[in-house]
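pinging the channel bc i need a second pair of eyes. not urgent but kinda urgent?? the chain im working w is below, pasted from the shared doc
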Amino acid sequence: MQFNTMTKHYLNKAKICIVGAGPAGFYAAQYLLKHLKDCQVDIIEKLPVPFGLVRFGVAPDHPEVKRVIHTFNKTAMSPRFQFFGNVSLGRDVTLQQLRSWYHAVLLTYGADKDRQLDIPNESEMKVLSAREFVGWYNGLPGAENLQPDLSGDVVTIIGQGNVAIDVARILLRPVDDLKKSDITSYALDVLASSKVKKVYLVGRRGPLQVAFTIKELREMLKLPRVSTIWKCEDFEGVKEVVDTLPRSRKRLVELMLKSLNEQQQIQVENDKKFLPIFLRSPKFLNRREVAFTINKLEQDRALPTNAIEMLKTDLILRSIGYESSCADAGIHFNVKTGCVSNEHGRVVSCKHEHTVDAGLYVAGWLATGPTGVILTTMNNAFMVAKTICDDITIGNLKVDEAKPGVAEWLNTKPVVTWKGWNKIDVEEVKRGQLLGKPREKIVKIEELLTVASL
């Protein structure tokens, strides 16, 4: 009975700070508030607005994916939850400060950079990041200045994940289909005058290894007035092994083979074309051309041959993965993996490689790398939040000392509370209604802060 009393005493006093208001942060908060009945959970976020990749990464023509925001809103309604927007780790507060103000700190600020191609002339030519392009049409503050040039016929996307196929779909989808989405008006204007007719989707491995999902491909294949054209030689030997594949991969490959077969039977001359190409790695850029090394597969590994293929293009978008950054010098960040060093969510100490730093945790892409979908992030966030609960319950994490939290240290800068975010939300919906859209996102930081303070 004495142990149970101590546990209850600890649970009453737990004060936890989550850094990052994306899916990982909100799912962790949801779990903590449910299982630590009297804890206080504060989320700090560098942007004035919450929801991270749900707001800025999910394609505007996928509104159903954004419904998880309803769950996040319920979490934010807890009297034991606080949101502090426009507060950046490493700029406004240090990790050391947060750790002195809270019993536990959970890092969930995600992946904010993209991997480079690292090929000659990449920096000199107009190579855009698919991540930045997505932020541009989704209203990420700062991305409105991207100014993609869509005056040419051909766009080449290097990478074959879901982000790459999202970008291809937005480039090829009829603009009228996007007018009732929450896509930014400035992006809609540019897409309306786009001259893009062909979008290549280039990957270094074969059809059996693609990273996009069947849902994304099926949607591409159904786009009106768009022909999907595969290269027959890319599918040599694929039909013979399709029955040996795991179920989800088998269904995806079967859909590609079905599309290839229909393409051979009926040649539809649409004005736009989606052209996936496999077994190609970018080698160098030369004016309006990309040189690709032709690869061969050996045990699922792409090995370069001596053969080179040139592809003419007007714009290049790289989409070969996201990377996290180290927001504070006190974080044990692994530059090779692009993740915070951790053991099951417990951050490894900077000073002692084989011990964890008590009270410091990491979840989401910052812990695992940019993999999976929102459900994957949810499961990881729940797992790490349970670890925090377990550490408190068994006494590995002491919470009997009173902690002040971040609030009183933020009176010298403009901070957006949840009440302030609700004002932004109402204003965006109001602006959207005038345009026949669900919302028109405000993209300027200064304007977001002004609206939040009204």
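so The longest strand covers residues 301-312. and The mean pLDDT is 92. — does that match what u expected or am i reading it wrong
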